[in-house]
């Protein structure tokens, strides 16, 4: 019984995801679904990306959290429109939540919408939320075996970001293995080595990101 | 509809959890539910604890994983009975799975059963699996805001282990804050600062653990 119901919900989620996509396309908004473990550095990376992209794009953020609003407050302090999505215990964000939240943004004045998903390497990967593309963040301290252990997250993401790369000397982390494992489940994924703290690797990531954003927005006007 | 079904499943899970508890009690086995994020160090800590406890207790392990059997192979290499539970994508372990697995152990020759839950700070906390007690592992690189963000995990655990404590100099991690936040949601929780790698803090943890194991097994014969 459980499996059947989950299946229905997930099919319904796909329909809603398509509707969200259509609405975003009508406003030429690129939605980026940011996923990763608790503490992988999702918020820190989003903050860095906003700093680098805000001159060029009008940015908004949906902050998914099970409880509290620590992350939303960080974004709000930057003067960026942010809506906190309190999932009240739920382990992932669904397309329906995004659909409900969209009217709270001034969609005519938005180019890029980051969605920081719940800190979880499992469930969020199962639910499309109308995104243009997905970023999977894996931080060095988590270990280099995570692609093998959580394959859906890495096989469905457009880019894999090895974050906290400046911490490499302090952990037994074989980044070549992560790259190899990712290629095994997702040959087309782009792989970046970055540090939200030190800033290393961000330039390469940003070049790719801008191209993807422009592509998603159906524009080459940059 | 989703909420209603989840509710039924969770009530049923509680019944099965009680049955697992009864069966374990009949064999005087202590089940320890080990939870934490991907990469928090659950396996490394279990390996350390087995090394320290195996002279005194007969130990078995259930290794929960969504895919792969990397962790189970590590335990097997120690000569410890281990059963791999492949959840095939599911984000947590339920009591029913434990009930199915128990007959695969020689229960008459077992004192302690570690269950390494799926790497996930959210869903596993919602499901009792017949455990005597719960350990929540939070590693220093994950950040000091996790208790506020994932309160159910920390409010339902008997002990909170700050792992990778040897990495404290390299991260902005306020361990006093974690302690304070934990006390806020769970005044009775024991809090330990440990490193599976360096071994620091393990002695204090082991003293507490042995007392809890003996208590769960209804014995003071140590």
Strand content of chain A: 15-25%
Q: Please bin the fraction of helical residues of chain A.
A: 25-40%
Rg of chain A from C-alpha positions? 17 Å
| Strand order within the widest beta sheet of chain A | 3-2-4-1-5-6-7
Please count the beta strands of chain A (DSSP E, at least 2 residues each).
7
Secondary structure tally, helices of chain A: 8
Instruction: Find the structural class of chain A using helix and strand composition.
Output: alpha/beta
Walk me through what this model shows:
- The structure is a homodimer of 222-residue chains.
- Chain A is an alpha/beta fold and 222 residues long.
- Helices cover 39% and strands 18% of the residues of chain A.
- Chain A has 8 helices and 7 strands; from the N terminus they run αβαβαβαββααβαβα.
- Chain A has a 7-stranded parallel sheet, sandwiched between helices.
- In chain A, helix 3 links the parallel strand 2 and strand 3 (82-86).
- In chain A, helix 1 packs parallel to helix 4 (95-101).
- The longest helix of chain A is centred in the N-terminal third of the chain and has 25 residues, at 2-26.
- The N and C termini of chain A lie far apart (51 Å).
- The interface between A and B is large, with 36 and 35 residues.
Characteristic key phrases:
18% strand, 8 helices, seven-stranded parallel beta sheet, homodimer, alpha/beta, 222 residues
């Amino acid at each position: 019984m459980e499996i059947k119901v989950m299946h229905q919900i997930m099919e319904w989620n796909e329909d809603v995801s398509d509707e969200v996509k259509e609405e975003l396309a009508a406003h030429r908004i690129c939605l980026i679904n940011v996923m990763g473990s608790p503490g992988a550095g999702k918020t820190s990376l989003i903050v860095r990306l906003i700093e680098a992209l805000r001159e060029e794009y009008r940015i908004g953020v949906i902050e998914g959290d099970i409880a509290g609003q620590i992350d939303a407050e960080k974004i709000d302090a930057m003067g960026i429109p942010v809506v906190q999505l309190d999932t009240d215990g739920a382990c992932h964000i669904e397309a329906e939540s995004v659909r409900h939240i969209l009217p709270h943004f001034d969609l005519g004045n938005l180019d890029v919408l980051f969605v920081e998903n719940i800190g979880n390497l499992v469930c969020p990967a199962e639910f499309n939320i109308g995104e243009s593309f997905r970023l999977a963040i894996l931080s060095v301290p988590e270990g280099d075996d995570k692609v093998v252990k959580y394959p859906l997250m890495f096989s469905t993401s457009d880019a894999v970001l090895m974050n906290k790369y400046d911490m490499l000397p302090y952990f037994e982390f074989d980044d070549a293995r992560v790259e190899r494992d990712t290629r095994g489940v997702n040959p087309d994924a782009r792989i970046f080595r970055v540090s939200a703290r030190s800033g290393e690797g961000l330039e390469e990531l940003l070049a790719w990101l801008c191209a993807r954003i422009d592509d998603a927005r159906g524009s080459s006007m940059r």
